[in-house]
Amino acid sequence: MTSRSSDFASVGTGEVDAVSSGRARHTIAAFLTKRLIAGAATLLVASFVIFFAVNVLPGNVATAVLGKNSTPANTALLRRRLHLNRPFIVRYGDWLGDALQGNLGQSAVALAQAGVGEGVGSGTVQNAGVAQKIGTPFRNSVILAGITIILLIPLSLLLGCLAGVRAGRSADYAISYTALVLGAFPEFVLGTLLIFLFFTLLNLFPPIALVGPGQTPLSEPNVLVLPVLTLLGVSLSFSARQVRAGMAEVMRQDYVAMARLNGLHERRVLWRYALRNALAPSVQVFAQTIQYLIGGIIIVESVFAYPGIGTFLVDAVTARDVPEVEAVALILAAIYILINIAADLLVLLLVPKLRTGLAQT
User: Fold this and answer.
1) Model confidence over 105-159: pLDDT tens digits?
2) Alpha-carbon span 308 to 301, nearest angstrom
3) What is the pTM of this model?
4) What is the average pLDDT value for the chain, to the nearest integer?
5) Which helix H or strand E contains 171, and what residues bound it?
6) Under 8 Å between Cβ of 89 and 129
7) Which CATH architecture has domain 130-319?
8) Closest residue by Cα to residue 235 from 197, 189, 279, 187
9) Rounded to whole angstroms, how far apart are CA atoms 346 and 361?
């Protein structure tokens, strides 16, 4: 009789676990669906703000692109090619519809250089597509940001945990004050100091990131050192201090003290109890740091003349190439939104209480 009862109990437990697992998957799927819908709505609003902000800038875009020597006929022709003669809301609808299909428009500067002002017809000019031009700079920026993030996360966890565990000691003061000093420097100041140290004084790394045609920055890895160090120095200062604060808070909790009183090894206490609970807030910190990194990469690429999306954007703004500016801004907005969604999802996976709370709502 006892064995049958235990069999039934084990079956019941297995069924409960299966039901709980199914509910957890359903909760996560529902949460992800809602966040994706909200993200799409946010991106729609952002697209309108981007298009409106770029197109209300003073001055005639066609005249600015063609130059002062352009004739009225050439200017009118380029305006037609860029659809600037249409109403604002119609142009926004056309631009958004094309963007959803992967068509980011045609570069105004490329059209002008191809001779649109001299009477080229309404067909697509070769090498004028923004999506075609943006591919290589975007890839280069992904390489730069990717290397920085790969180094940033483990270093932030290592230094932050070390400072948090040894809060109030010399290691904590050394890490915290060093991070504070690094964070006080803007990107262009820190980049300039690194150029002075590693190029002017030591002559170790080039001050300008020169990448040959058809090559990637990985073909010349030495050009990545100074930009990566600059981004890492600024972003590490924020993330390491935040991880340190979370770890120090967790180490003061009762369950950590109880685990120590039960005789558990200090390493097990840190890995099983402290780090896991400090990791969930750190996910949001890393998400904010990566978002900040996306903004900082524009400045760093300009300092080192790195051929990435930041340099591409600066050149587009300088040349008043409206389609290129709109495309880059829309892509950056989409990346910001996706980072937020990924961070929220990861926190939900790490904290069971959040899943329980969502399932009950």
Assistant:
1) 887 777 766 665 444 444 455 566 888 888 888 889 889 989 998 999 889 888 8
2) 7
3) 0.77
4) 79
5) helix 170-184
6) no
7) Orthogonal Bundle (1.10)
8) 187
9) 20
- Report the Cα 84 to chain-centroid distance in Å: 32
Domain ranges of the chain: 2-118, 130-319
Structure token digits, residue 95: 């631009």
Amino acid at 313: L
d(CA 218, CA 205): 15
* Measured torsion, CA atoms of residues 162, 165, 171, 177, in degrees rounded to the nearest 10: 80
CA distance 297 to 147: 12
CB-neighbour burial class of residue 351 (10 A; exposed 0-12, middle 13-18, buried 19+): middle
Residue 80 buriedness (CB in 10 A; 0-12 / 13-18 / 19+): middle
Q: Are the CB atoms for 219 and 211 separated by under 8 Å?
A: yes
The CA–CA distances, whole Å, from 117 to 96, 107, 244 equal: 26, 14, 59
Structure tokens at 318: 């300088």
Element (H, E) at 109: helix 108-113
Q: Which amino acid is at 239?
A: S
Specify whether the CB–CB gap between 41 and 337 falls below 8 A: no
Do 147 and 209 meet the contact criterion of CB atoms below 8 Å apart?
no
Helix, strand, or coil (residue 305): coil
The number of residues in the chain equals 361
Q: Which two tokens stand for residue 109?
A: 């500067």
List residues bridging with 129 in a β-sheet: 106
